[in-house]
Amino acid sequence: xxxxxxxxxxxxxxxxxxxxxxxxxxxxxxxxxxxxxxxxxxxxxxxxxxxxxxxxxxxxxxxxxxxxxxxxxxxxxxxxxxxxxxxxxxxxxxxxxxxxxxxxxxxxxxxxxxxxxxxxxxxxxxxxxxxxxxxxxxxxxxxxxxxxxxxxxxxxxxxxxxxxxxxxxxxxxxxxxxxxxxxxxxxxxxxxxxxxxxxxxxxxxxxxxxxxxxxxxxxxxxxxxxxxxxxxxxxxxxxxxxxxxxxxxxxxxxxxxxxxxxxxxxxxxxxxxxxxxxxxxxxxxxxxxxxxxxxxxxxxxxxxxxxxxxxxxxxxxxxxxxxxxxxxxxxxxxxxxxxxxxxxxxxxxxxxxxxxxxxxxxxxxxxxxxxxxxxxxxxxxxxxxxxxxxxxxxxxxxxxxxxxxxxxxxxxxxxxxxxxxxxxxxxxxxxxxxxxxxxxxxxxxxxxxxxxxxxxxxxxxxxxxxxxxxxxxxxxxxxxxxxxxxxxxxxxxxxxxxxxxxxxxxxxxxxx
Length: 512
Known about the structure:
By secondary structure, the protein is α/β, with parallel strands linked by helices. The chain is 56% helix and 11% strand. It is built from 17 helices and 10 strands. The strands form 2 sheets. Strands 7-6-5-8-9-10 form a 6-stranded parallel beta sheet, with helices on both faces. Helix 7 crosses helix 9, helix 9 packs across helix 16 and helix 11 packs parallel to helix 12. The relative contact order is 0.08.
């Protein structure tokens, strides 16, 4: 019996330190079973020497399972991020990482990470932008050009517990003018996987709000970010780049429709009730999905999303029958308790998952079980989470088809060709805005020099006027008020004209 229980305990843990969800009732029941079993063996051992080896063995396995349970608890609580940016001499500097397998963070964690980044040596201001496809650091740095800049890669490694070797191949970095250009392009959705999608601007604004509340934004990043918001608005107003924009969520739904030809009569399970899931649900209704199941760790959030879907369906029913893509059917929603996720998931033809879990939710063994319950009817997983919610090995299960963010790029590519002309117009706006911002920045830096030069010239002018007036008065040829006024205007005009070339050069002088 002991050997059988040991083998069962080993098999239930599919990866080192346990891939099983630590609050899974089966895991908790197994843990309780071992406690009872060890107690029985202990009581048996007290009556004699029989069962001593079994008691030791079961006790060791109990300790191992306890370690697994705690490890799962720790990995569930902890999170991590990838991506960054930062400047020199009040100019933004971008060092970033795209597509890294790190989870998105709740706002409290994002605020803490932002504060920690802003307190790194050499960093004056900071903002962290975290989306499903990027994590970027935008920083203002104090270091002179000839010194070593702050080690942002080290910060990533130490704060988020991600090895430098894992991160480094994915990092990219921009400084000063190019950092400004990159920020403008990101806010304008020119650097998005799907060009023109509107969600990125809201995410930038959210990161800005978090950074402001954390005290990480001051006189340098504030005007830069405000300008980025203005540029994004201008791009969307003056071009048609967003007229048919498609978010990552809608691309995922489009992929599901292409797989099935139609979503009419299909059941969709949405795991996670965040913004992406909300967007996906809206697009699913538009594409004709008739049954949507929602599972989330927070039941209230799942119920809220279900209510939003119901409201959308009611609005469409008020305007006439829902007959999108020929469905002709109303869409129903159902909230699935998260602890019943694995029991209910087999009902779904399509599973669209977008959570912040630091480890996969669906493993290969889950896929095998789902297919058995579905009598081998195919099941499609669309994973738009970072890190992935679906174990890549799931794709090896016959009848299970897995698509992740990388696969969405192929769908997104089809939209890029249609938007080439609008992208070119938007890029021209960004280029012009970058130049204007750079000129304003140079003018701002030149202001103290210009003021000093003007004050010095005015002091010389006043001194010469006073000396000339005194000399004329001594010879009895003092100027009349009208003459004094004329001389005043003449000297002011001459001073302004003589200073004009120098002031113009200062405003246009390239940064050295």
